[in-house]
Structures are given as structure tokens and as C-alpha cells.
Amino acid sequence: MRKCYDKRMKPPQEDVNPWKTLSSRTVYKNPWLTVREDAVITPGGSEGIYSVVESKPGVLIIAQTEADEIYLIESFRYPLQAWRLEIPTGGVEPGDTLLEAAQKELEEELGFKADSWELLGDTYPSNNGPLNDHNPVFLARKLQAVPTEHEAGEAIRPPRAIPYAEVLDMVRRGELTDGQTLSALLHYLLWRETQGLTRHE
What we know:
Largest sheet: 4 strands, mixed
Number of strands: 10
Strand content: 35-45%
Oligomer: single chain
Helix content: 10-25%
CATH topology of the largest domain: Nucleoside Triphosphate Pyrophosphohydrolase
Order of helices and strands: EEEEEEEHEEEHH
Strand order of the largest sheet: 7-4-9-8
CATH architecture of the largest domain: Alpha-Beta Complex
Low-confidence stretches: 1-10
Shape: globular
CATH class of the largest domain: Alpha Beta
Distance between the termini: 36 Å
CATH superfamily of the largest domain: Nucleoside Triphosphate Pyrophosphohydrolase
Mean pLDDT: 88
Number of helices: 3
Structural class: alpha+beta
């Protein structure tokens, strides 16, 4: 539907930032994240403070087998004090491209190399709050086993190759609740539609 605007009205300016930053300071920093506090003028015109957690970018990996399975790993997530099923993920180290980071994580977490890589899309899973994390989604296919060794400090159980249809059923049953995994699976589902693949193919 085409929108019409009165000539007396200013056209919409979608790229204009309605916030004004007056000053910015770092309040905490470690190798994984930086906490920043900005003095701002809000879109409503009042002064305030906005806290931002800056994290290094990460990658999300859908590893698909020739039998139409998806690899899931079970990681112990310290903030939740619980084991959680999820797809392989990892941070991007300085000097690495997004693809190089995805390739490294596939080897470290699953013990595979992939002959086929495809970028499915971007996700910003937490940017409706203080986090600015950016996680592109990669599809890895034509997998080949290689020797692997998990990073020190990671608690990961052996990976499981689960049929795609069963993965969807796990989402329905509430067994897959990781936000990054769910957003990546949506990109993957849409990719499958473009390939003419059904739920059971």
C-alpha cells in the first residue's frame, strides 16, 4: 500500500537518531565485554543515562549432515546454572573474518570441517536492551571429521546429530530455548523454503 503525505508535513526520516549523546565513559572492561555509560538526551527531550554492554561479535552455525540432521551441543551456561542444548556458537577474535571464526568454532566444538559455507542472515539477539551483540548465521554442509580440542574453560557434552523434523518438535516441546539457536533456526527454515525443501526432506 502506497503512503501519501501532506506537502506541509516533513517526510519521514527513518535514519535520524532521536537520541543525543552528551558524553560517554567506560565503567568496566574485560577481554569479553565493555560496559559503557552514556549521558544522553532522550527522544522525549529529558536528560538521562543509558548503559551499554559492548560485546565482541559472534557467529552462529547450523551444521547440516547429508542425512538432513542438525548438530546440537549441550553446554553448561553459568548464568543459568544449567545445561542447555544449542547450536555451535563462538566469538570473533581480532584479525579473523566472520567466516574464519565460524570455521574455527565448527572445528573446536564439533570436530568438523565443511566444504560448503553459506551466510543465511544476521541476528542482533539482545539489542532491545543494553547489549549491542551481533551474530551472523552460517550454514555449514558437506562435513568432514577432523581432530578437535575444546577451549579451556568450556563445559560441553558430546554433540548430537538430530533430524531436522525432530529439532522442530524439540522447539515445540520447549526443549530448545536458547535465543540464538531459535533465531538461527528461523533463518535456516526460511533458507530451506527457498530450496524447495519440506519439513521431512
